[in-house]
Design goal:
It is built from 1 helix and 33 strands. By secondary structure, the protein is an all-beta fold. It is globular, with a radius of gyration of 18 Å.
């Protein structure tokens, strides 16, 4: 039986994190370990998916780092430190992947930052603060430095358990522990009007939010009771309409907490924490999901965080109970997963980012 404390950890998860850029020919994997106040770093062999820990890994971060995110240039790494209410900036050595903290940590202005998202085109970083119930927004300079927008952080009225942006950067979607999605308009990062509050499922926590690349559909993991996923169409003004047949219950799966759409945009993967597996679906044109024939795929105990290799060949799964990152080969032709190996991280990897 999962501990109630798991719910707080779950809000740190992004459904999927990857950045593809030309900063280096190597692939590097970064993961936050809240329990040890560290970041583990691996070099990934892009031909095999094998992970090799860097000699100097793990690296010291702030207290209880919960989320990790890459600067659009691929030269810098942001880490949300939930235990000290700030964001660390690390520079990344392109030839080695070694990270070095740069400058003083940036206060969020809120309490317990757990989630991050970036509008890469606009150069904006969003940080959701779980205890102060607000959203901090920063500009990201070319050197990685952060500057808070005027009036940031912006009040949300709920403790955020999920965070996603529309591809246009004009909308932000906030999940809540009451099984609801709040949609706000954005104007150059400034939180605008509340479009609406949209229910997902009863007795649930709305987490693992992901938006498809066209900005047409929003997917939500409904854990803590519902054991289902929701899919909404996104209207022109940001209003959500849950598709017929949703919430969709998952056969043989329990406690979905994190979602990922692979880089090809063809498949959706669901980390089911209590049933120790991943459910897999193909995305149907015009909306909807079709479960893959071999779904679900077994994992190390308590899969919680998900990330994809930028080339779309490998899927990475952070295990809460296994204190590891498990790598799967992703068959782009049919979405099937095959395990490569599992790698110890010394603690629960709450968030994973992959740099190409």
């Amino acid at each position: 039986m999962l501990k109630k404390a798991t719910a707080l950890l779950v809000v740190a998860l992004s459904a999927a994190t990857w950045i593809s850029c030309g900063a280096t020919s190597n692939h590097y994997v970064f993961a936050t370990i809240p329990a040890t106040n560290q970041i583990v770093v691996f070099r990934e062999d892009p031909n095999s998916g094998v992970l090799i820990p860097l000699q100097n890994s793990p690296f010291t971060s702030g207290i209880a780092p919960e989320a990790v995110l890459l600067h659009p240039s691929g030269k810098y790494l942001y880490v949300a430190n939930s235990g000290e209410d700030n964001v660390s900036l690390f520079s990344i050595a392109p030839s080695t992947g070694i990270i070095t903290e740069s400058g003083p940590r940036t206060p969020t202005g809120g309490t317990t930052p757990m989630l991050m998202a970036a509008d890469k085109k606009a150069g904006l970083l969003y940080v959701a603060n779980a205890v102060s119930n607000n959203l901090s927004v920063f500009t990201m300079a070319s050197d990685g430095s952060l500057a808070a927008l005027p009036n940031s952080p912006f009040p949300l009225g709920v403790s955020p358990t999920g965070l996603a942006l529309s591809p246009s950067g004009g909308l932000v979607f906030i999940g809540s522990g009451q099984g609801e999605i709040l949609v706000y308009t954005l104007n150059a990062g400034v939180l605008g009007s509340l479009v609406g509050v949209f229910p997902t499922a009863v007795n649930t926590t709305a987490s693992g939010l992901v938006v498809d690349s066209t900005g047409s559909f929003l997917f939500v993991a409904n854990g803590n009771g519902s054991n289902s996923i929701s899919e909404f169409s996104i209207g022109a003004g940001g209003a959500l309409a849950q598709l017929p047949g949703f919430p969709l219950g998952e056969t043989g799966t329990t406690s979905p907490v994190s979602l990922l759409i692979d880089p090809s945009g063809k498949y959706l993967y669901v980390a089911n924490q209590a049933s120790n597996n991943l459910a897999a679906y193909s995305l149907v044109s015009g909306g909807g999901l079709t479960v893959l024939t071999n779904s679900p795929f077994g994992t190390v105990k308590a899969p919680t965080s998900l990330a994809a290799d930028p080339n779309g060949n490998y899927l990475m799964v952070g295990s809460q109970s296994g204190a590891s990152i498990e790598v799967f080969l992703l068959d782009s032709g049919n979405g099937t997963l095959g395990e490569v190996a599992s790698y110890g991280t010394g603690g629960f990897p709450s968030s994973i980012a992959v740099l190409q």
